[in-house]
């Protein structure tokens, strides 16, 4: 790719990252091109559809999140790793509207796109964290990944995320032995 084309692609990605983070999926390709200082045709040459642009951006963020999951798994006990990662994921989604929409299934199937891209298997990382924490006895054995997605959605939507994380964390822990 020519150097000027590579610079334009980088400008488009950076601009789209900011736009999707603050405004979600509603931002048009034309508006992203305008903000990046390039034409709609330039955006379309690099990303033929809005979904392909969004996928590139979300997958870059997912790669970062999956790397964080693996680092957390390698450095923390299973229960701590699970709860630390869940809070991290909720925080990332709350700070990035586009990521929140992707993680909650609004308009983009992040799991399907991530699973098809090596190093981006968010669902696989979540599964590893969950099963390790369950095996360690720090997460209820009946909790599923579908439960986690619903709880993550609640945390993202909550006006007081810290409070909601405290409630969710308490609900995920096993009941004390009688």
CATH topology of the largest domain: Tetracycline Repressor, domain 2
Which blocks of ≥5 consecutive residues have pLDDT under 50?
Answer: none
C-alpha-based Rg, rounded? 18 Å
Distance between the termini: 65 Å
Strand segment count: 0
Which structural class fits the helix and strand makeup?
A: mainly alpha
What's the CATH superfamily of the largest domain, by name? Tetracycline Repressor, domain 2
The profile of the biggest β sheet is: none
Helix content: over 70%
Taken in chain order, the helices and strands follow as HHHHHHHHHH
Tertiary shape: elongated
Please tell me the overall pLDDT: 87
Pfam families: TetR_C_43, TetR_N
Keywords: DNA-binding, Transcription, Transcription regulation
Organism: Actinoplanes ianthinogenes
Domain HTH tetR-type: 6-65
Textual characterization of the structure:
- InterPro entries: DNA-bd_HTH_TetR-type_CS, Homeodomain-like_sf, HTH-type_TetR-like_transc_reg, HTH_TetR, Tet_transcr_reg_TetR-rel_C_sf, TetR_SbtR-like_C.
- With 178 residues, the protein is mostly helical.
- The protein has 2 domains: 1-48, Arc Repressor Mutant, subunit A (Orthogonal Bundle); 56-172, Tetracycline Repressor, domain 2.
- The chain contains 10 helices and no strands.
- It has helices at residues 3-23, 29-36, 40-46, 50-75, 78-95, 97-103, 110-115, 122-135, 145-157, 161-172.
- Helix 1 (3-23) packs across helix 2, helix 4 packs parallel to helix 8 and helix 5 packs across helix 9 (145-157).
- The longest helix has 26 residues, at 50-75.
- The radius of gyration is 18 Å and the shape is elongated.
- The protein starts with a helix and ends in a 6-residue tail after the last helix.
